[in-house]
Amino acid sequence: MRQCERWRLTGPKRRAAERARLGKVIIVVAVVALAWLATELVRRRAGGREFSAEPPVAQSSAQVASSANVAVVMAWGASAQANVDSQQLNLDHKLSLRFMTAYEAAFRGVLLADESGSYRIGLAPYASLGAAAIEVSVGGAIVTSPLPEPALTDNDFREGVPRQPRPKWRQLSVNRQGARVTISLDGARIGQLTAGPLPAKGKLYLGRLAHPHGPQDQFYGLIYDVTINEQTLAPSSLSLRGSASAMQVSSDGDAERDARRLPEPTHTTRFSLPFPEEQVWLVIQGANSALSHNDIAAFALDFIRVDPRFVRDNPERRPGGSHRVTEGAPLVAAAGGRVVSVVDCFANDNSGRCAGDGSQAPPIARSAARNRNLICVEHSVSETTCLLHLQQRSVRVAPNAVVERGAPLGRAGSTGVPAPHLHFALCDRAEPSEPGEVTDLVTRPVAFDDYFASDDFGETWRHVARGTPTPGQWVTRTKPAPR
């Protein structure tokens, strides 16, 4: 009896203690969740592209054949051939497809084309209108229309790290009646043309032309729900080529969710930030930008060094980038490779003079933008990094020299531009070593490994295993000491 009475007396107390412990657990979980949410909101506000160490696994051919809501994912070198005769496009037809673009300010992005390229729909080269645009060719006749509300990088960080635009699904339709062709985007007519005389022929191709004019004929993004005369293109009819893959997307058009399926940079070289470990740099212009990083230069990045004073203490949350501190800042190789181009002769005053061995050569008759010093390092086939606007006579290595990751290359400057900064790009080939010359290279999407980023001008830092910095972010190879 006493035993029962003892349990009867202590039972409520024990239950109260258990409730208290449970309450503490809930509070801890809530605090952790709120901390994660705060970090995630900061990350999403900054819009930095970060990639998981293990990217989404592409579906196998069998999975593609049996899955619904499958989109084709197009990255560098990707395309797909459809087992469909394109001659039906010479007759009356209605064609529609949905697409999500990773970079709307890039070069020509072919969504769909016949084998000859006379029938072609997709994104126009940014330079064609000086804006993001849709390009449609039917029978060789072409119409180009501006893309409404393009998702371009926001480079204005005067009031904080800018919120980057989110990729969106778009639906493009082509309706041919006789020779009259009407083009609609998201249900609104954006253009029309009279079909040309060149017939569509051969199979259909997605992502790029069957016979590309160059590497710039590449779409980056998702292509989904291709329909011709109410017949939807079956995933099983596609032959994927290069880096193309197929992945399931949402059935309700959830753009935020589907944006996670956008292609990551496909380069095989693992890049580090091109600065010494102790330095912090600010991204002042990102890829996919209306300023100057568009068309063939769409994937370049511009950096200036953060004044060390603001790294130590920045109570007013200033961007902290300093052209003065950038001038002469050392730059290093982002990865091992061979030096394939060097221009080191242009004067720092942007007079256009190109002097060597102490001589004073006359100015080169080129635009100021061409009068820039540079160095390019080839890492593998179609993977060359170029650093532009270096100080005169600051290059530390000779052409054909083999360099290791982190090796000193030169110093940041302002040759060819009004103010000192580093222009960094991953390219399919090198810039010429002849002063003032240019070539038809194209830039490629680039990601860096193992760096630290701050989205609040140094207040907090997070480690990034792999990602592409965006405007307003501070980045560094080693985490700064706590303030």
Explain this structure.
The chain contains six helices and 29 strands. With 483 residues, it is an alpha+beta fold. The chain has three domains: 2-46; 61-261, Jelly Rolls (Sandwich); 280-476, Glucose Permease (Domain IIA). Strands 1, 17, 18, 20, 21, 22, 23, 25, 26, 27, 28 and 29 form a twelve-stranded antiparallel β-sheet that branches. A hairpin with a 2-residue loop joins strand 21 (373-380) and strand 22. The longest helix has 45 residues, at 2-46. The termini are far apart. The model is unreliable at 1-10, 25-47 and 53-57 (pLDDT under 50).
Structure at a glance:
The protein is α+β, with helices and mostly antiparallel strands and 483 residues long.
Q: Major sheet: size, sense and barrel closure?
A: 12 strands, antiparallel
What proportion of the residues form beta strands (DSSP E)? Answer: 25-35%
CATH topology tier name of the largest domain: Jelly Rolls
Number of H- or I-type helical stretches: 6
What is the CATH C-level name of the largest domain?
A: Mainly Beta
Give the number of domains: 3
Cα distance, first to last residue? 65 Å
- The 3D shape can be described as globular
Residue share in helix: 10-25%
Mean pLDDT: 87
What is the strand tally?
29
Uncertain parts: 1-10, 25-47, 53-57
Gyration radius (Cα, Å) is 27 Å
Structural class estimated from helices and strands: alpha+beta
The CATH architecture category of the largest domain equals: Sandwich
